């Protein structure tokens, strides 16, 4: 059976695949720091060369920032999906360097209680993950002479610095990038050894407002008492966002468009190995603090939030200052789920504040902040169940459709700009220390990740 | 009658008195800026020389900062009080310089709709006010050959920069500075033309606390929902400080030691010319926002406050950051009245917070912030009513005992260190723009201020 041959090839080639990854990791492609601009370019060149070695028509494509890498291989065929694979070749900065046990761009294999790991910046986020797919393609090509379907490769070099060029590039090249399904390898497994397909992410609404009390900063002796203090006003408004009894958001209509999680999915979540105690205690909590009627996992994956990300006003230096400030500021973000409409929700939140303003208080809103609906994957598409089966086979453990608390903007952009559903499969572990010193990727994640993609390719193209 | 001779002398000497003040104002004695250290010294020398010209034994006394000026004149006598007069020769910085219509240290007389003013930095705060007393002494000396009682002059040069040397100097020289009554000329009239003796000031309690939620900053996608957000927690705690219905502070026992204002004083306040509408509207308010059961003036002068002076946590830069911060911070000050005990109140406020903390939230307090009781003058002392009569005579308008929302720390120090009551008489107007560009002092304030002090000296010593 040809899949077995591909898998055997992957096993045999693992040392060389690891060497290739190490070479890639040695390029310090830190996108946010201009000092590493040439290195980002080198990483893009490295990818182009590697894709070309697989017979893929790949090229580096300029942007106002770091280049994109786009590659095409294969022909569209009846009944076989055209896949787009996305990853990013840029990495996070490495500071504080003193906390690294080994130099971040001199990757090495290290033994740990959980098995060998590849230690180095980008090993997990995202070079190691990205290469699981490339190496699966390499093995497939070597066994079969060609890939099983048309595949577009799309790698960016600005994911860790806000992706400023991404949307314009996708808009300008929409026809070229259009495919049937996007595969994204930039996520974690829900717990060690449990293969996961992230099928429901949360959307995002950003807003910011300023409460103005007095026209100017006041002296708390001269005006303390009669003055409306905007910090007190803002605290009252923030407090009014919540119902303390239930832990719910108290903004009228906030939960419109929120759906309950179906029973069978809840069942998967209950047995997915999520370690609630570890999740909470690792950051200092003894209990979950969200909606009391929902489990910790539901609070994180399936329930919306209204979060205060920044709040400030008055004096914050050393000692004391007897000021009643003129202004108080608040930054909020909402995580959205289901069919929540960010534009409608923005109006509800603003109305909530405006309805509760004290006499003499004013509110002004920042109108430059965007919102995006929750990307909810259509897991009724047959590809999703096929991929879930392939992952279950590889990991000898039922794969689960998970939620994700975060937003993975790229999935939203694929939907919005290319009308493309995304399947998010990743093999990272929560202890990979991405964005932190001593980032690592388990060799097991790398090896079984490559094997997983080979199985997924086989399942999606029924070519095995 | 000899007081009339003194007053006539004051009238005749006004041009020269004004010239002397202008000379004093030309010295840029900005205490907070080290670049003006020599100028502060020059201002002290100027004062020493001027006092000596009145036959006062005056000298410049070194401190680790700017020097004090101390002068003594006259002998203690039975039935005649020994007075201590306090003022400060340093001034505020002048930035932004571009907003000054005339150079801040080139004082000039300028006509305005309210009459001529002396324009320049320090004209009102406090050189002009300080000189009203010195000029009264000069006229008295010239008519009578000597002053009517023993007087100690005490001028500091660090009032605008936190008075770091004041307490140590007073402690080291307590015996020398001890007197029967302190006179302080650094306050305003309650309204234009209404002579005022500030007889009740508010005390101050400072505190600062930090609420810690998660052990580290969290990603609002990964933890939003289950996470306790310290900004929300802090907002809830701040809100719990107040009873919205009554406008009162809701901390248990907060009002212990607060007394109602006596009826006759309330009557004075009602007719003192305080322009409530102007006071509120000048800073953008249409109504007072303090305790609903009390008038605006009572809220400012006679009622305690719990004010939020600074509140901050999370991200406050441009755009958005999806963070749930680990910490949120709050600076508070309370204005105290009557017999409120700052030490006891601190414990009550802390208990209020600690009793209401959520599970998993922690609070830490800054233990380096002080408190001071409200300095309440003993207006039953005969000197107070005598001075009030003298001021009423000069201004042809009943003088009033006013409150002051602020703290005038020097009055508290005189009480605490020298066990000395203070009488605060000043002739500034609210539109003097002290601490701001284009500071001025009405010529009328200067002229009638000098005459007022002559009358007060006469009344206190019954020497007229």
Automatic annotation (TrEMBL), chains A, B:
Pfam families: M20_dimer (PF07687), Peptidase_M20 (PF01546). One of its GO terms (biological process) is proteolysis. GO terms for molecular function: metal ion binding; peptidase activity. Keywords: Hydrolase, Metal-binding, Protease. This is Peptidase M20 dimerisation domain-containing protein. Residues 209-358 form the Peptidase M20 dimerisation domain. It comes from the Bacteria. Gene3D superfamilies: 3.30.70.360, Zn peptidases. It comes from Pseudodonghicola xiamenensis.
């Amino acid at each position: 059976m040809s899949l077995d041959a591909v898998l055997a090839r992957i096993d045999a080639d693992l040392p060389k695949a690891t060497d290739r990854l190490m070479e890639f990791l040695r390029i310090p492609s830190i996108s946010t720091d201009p000092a590493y601009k040439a290195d980002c370019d080198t990483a893009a060149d490295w990818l182009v060369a590697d894709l070309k070695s697989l017979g893929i028509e790949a090229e580096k494509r300029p942007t106002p920032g770091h280049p994109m890498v786009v590659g095409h291989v294969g022909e569209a065929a009846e009944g076989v999906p055209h896949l787009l694979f996305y990853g990013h070749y840029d990495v996070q900065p490495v500071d504080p360097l003193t906390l690294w046990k080994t130099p971040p761009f001199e990757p090495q294999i290290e033994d740990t209680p959980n098995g060998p790991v590849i230690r180095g910046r980008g090993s997990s986020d995202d070079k190691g993950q990205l290469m699981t797919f490339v190496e699966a393609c390499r093995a497939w090509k070597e066994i079969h002479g060609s890939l099983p379907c048309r595949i577009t490769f799309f790698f960016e070099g600005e994911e860790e610095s806000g992706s400023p060029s991404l949307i314009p590039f996708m808009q300008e090249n929409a026809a070229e990038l259009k495919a049937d399904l996007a595969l994204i390898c930039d996520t974690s497994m829900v717990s060690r050894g449990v293969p996961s397909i992230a099928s429901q992410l949360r959307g995002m609404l950003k807003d910011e407002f300023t409460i103005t009390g007095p026209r100017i900063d006041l002296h708390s002796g001269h005006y303390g008492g009669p003055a409306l203090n905007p910090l007190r006003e803002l605290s009252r408004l923030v407090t009014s966002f919540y119902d303390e009894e239930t832990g719910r958001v108290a903004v009228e209509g906030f939960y419109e468009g929120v759906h309950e999680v179906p029973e069978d999915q809840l069942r998967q979540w209950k047995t997915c190995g999520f370690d609630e105690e570890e999740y909470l205690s690792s950051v200092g909590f003894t209990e979950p603090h969200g909606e009391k009627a929902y489990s910790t996992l539901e609070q994180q994956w399936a329930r919306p939030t209204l979060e205060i990300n920044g709040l400030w006003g008055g004096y914050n230096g050393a000692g004391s200052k007897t000021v009643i400030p003129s202004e108080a500021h608040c930054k909020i973000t909402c995580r959205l789920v289901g069919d929540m409409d960010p534009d409608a929700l923005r109006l509800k939140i603003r109305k909530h504040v405006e309805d509760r303003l004290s006499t003499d208080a004013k509110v002004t809103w920042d109108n430059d902040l965007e919102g995006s609906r929750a990307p909810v994957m259509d897991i009724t598409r047959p590809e999703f169940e096929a991929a879930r089966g392939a992952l279950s086979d590889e990991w000898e453990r039922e794969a689960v459709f998970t939620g994700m608390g975060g937003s993975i903007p790229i999935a939203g952009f694929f939907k919005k700009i290319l009308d493309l559903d995304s399947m998010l499969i990743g093999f990272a572990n929560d202890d990979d220390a991405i964005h932190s010193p001593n980032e690592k990727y388990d060799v097991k994640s790398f090896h079984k990740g490559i094997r997983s993609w080979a199985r997924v390719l086989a399942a999606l193209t029924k070519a095995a």
